[in-house]
Amino acid sequence: MKLKAAFMFLSPDASHEKSVVSTPSVELTVIATRNYDDAVSVATELADLGIKSIELCGGFGHIGTARIANAVEGKATVGVVRFDIHPGLDGASGDSIFTK
User: Fold this and answer.
1) The pLDDT value given to residue 84
2) Domain locations in the chain as residue ranges
3) Which residues contact residue 50 at a Cβ distance below 8 angstroms, ignoring those fewer than 6 apart?
4) Does the pTM of the predicted model rise above 0.85?
5) Which helix (H) or strand (E) holds 78?
6) 3-class DSSP state for residue 66?
7) Cβ-count burial of 39 within 10 angstroms (0-12 exposed, 13-18 middle, 19+ buried)?
């Protein structure tokens, strides 16, 4: 059975650009999201479509990661690349940008 997985990253000017990479064992959807609220919505939709594993970019801080994990609990597992600060977010964590 092919694993359906996703990688989500943050880009404040994103409009849900999406790419899919498929191998015999994994179908990986890569998608850009604007902020934490948008990411929660997208993650929920992905889980409802059968995505079983969601990897989050390092821009998601602890709060953002928890929001995604809570949103898809029981439907998908959540992993995260870890950065204390993220170069693509002007050297900040998503927590300091999206939770004010």
Assistant:
1) 66
2) 3-98
3) 4
4) no
5) strand 77-80
6) helix
7) buried
Residue-wise pLDDT tens digits, 22-59: 999 999 999 999 999 999 999 999 999 999 999 999 88
How is residue 83 written in tokens?
Answer: 């950065």
Architecture in CATH for domain 3-98: 3-Layer(aba) Sandwich (3.40)
For the beta carbon of residue 13, count every other beta carbon within 10 angstroms. Answer: 6
Q: Give burial (CB, 10 Å; 0-12/13-18/19+) of 91.
A: exposed
Asked whether residue 88 carries a pLDDT value surpassing 80, the answer given is: no
Band of the pLDDT at 86, cuts 50, 70, 90? Answer: low
Tell me if 59 sits within 8 A of 94, measured CB to CB: yes
Half-sphere exposure of 60 (CA within 13 A, CB side): 27
Nearest to 16 by CA among 36, 38, 33: 33
